[in-house]
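Box S2. Input/output pair 1.
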Amino acid sequence: MSHYLFLVASAREPGHVGNTEWLARHAAASLPAAAQQQWLHLTHMEVPAFVDQRHTVGTYPKPTGDLLTLLDATMACTDLVFVAPVYWYSFPSSLKHYLDHWSAWLRVQDLGFKDAMAAKRLHLVTTSGSRPVAQPMIDSTKLCAEFLGMPFAGALWGKGGPPAAVESDREAIAQAARFFVGS
């Protein structure tokens, strides 16, 4: 059974659905009823700063708290979906913070993070003022997938900006309806 983990990285105020999350939820509506969906908002989670001890201690303990919640959800999914608006040509800080912890998870004894990730598909849903502005983040997502041997299942881009802007992007809405087809 498919299990989609949607990691929402928008910095919108709590209770406000931004353009990117709206587009992702529109895309998720086309998933089969049997597909499990889990939505986590990274900005609402307490994730400690990543401390790089790869070249000193070399290993990391299994995380605790919200970081353990993220690890468990990441390990349990078949499909990982980054729901991330473009901020300064890149990932929002909450998503980058999550990705930094992948370096630790690769070194948690007996976790098998890299092998587990290679069996998952990575998707990106994003919005920005223009498609070229999103390209660096799309490229970064592809490189993250490539590093772990994950299939990159594609990027869904929509015209963002002010609240509800993407709801007028007919092309993005049409693509959203087909984005997860075949996943």
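Box S3. Input/output pair 2.
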Amino acid sequence: MYCIALCDDEEKELDRIEGFLARYQDRKKSMEYRIRRFTDAETLLRQVRKQSYIPDLILLDIFMAGKNGMEAAAEIRKLGFFMPIVFLTTSKDHALYAYEVDAIQYLVKPVEQDRFFHAMDSAMGRMEKRKESQIVLKVAGGVCHLEPDDIVYCESQKNYQILYLTNGLQKVRMTAENLWKILEKFSQFGKCGRSYILNMNHIVSAEREEIAMDNKSTIYIPRNKAAEFKKAYFSYYFEQGDGEDEALYETNIPK
């Protein structure tokens, strides 16, 4: 189930686009989504900032009272959210700026249904692709959607897993084994003893029994697991290369 945000300061425009969405869904029976309407950009932004509502797609007017749609889109990107954005506006003047915020479509009002459907096809294609690469976890109060590289590392604490993210922490009630079943399909994750799962894209250095992460954390590896983990790390690190540097390093891995 996708969440779609409609943001326009004219109710008749919201009604029109919601009607298009209903007809689009009639054609795409497999696509399910919920719609939330906003009559100003600031209300939408406030919910995104608090992460109380993160839409999968935003259909956004540009010319609105208060913060305009282009400013809202720029702030959403600065907050680190990269969901598809489709602009719906009365002017072509901002078309070039739309590329700066990675908008996937720029539609000039009055929007024609065929053009809107084409924009939705593009948006849905991107959303489906993103869904395949996302990590979805049940957390207190709902569901957490993460990109793999949002996770720096995970630490096991009995029946809870602490996820150290690029923008904070997330505590998940599940076993380390079940979390590993979710993460192991992403090649950048490696187990480090019983307590840690590390994202190897966030490793700064691996020396002796210490792993330095790019969030300034240091992970201490059990001595009997150090060689095994480092071998996996350098195999991942050099998998795109010719393997010569990896072979040189393997001769110096502590046993």
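Caption for Box S3: The chain has two domains: 2-133, 137-250. The two ends are 49 Å apart (CA to CA).
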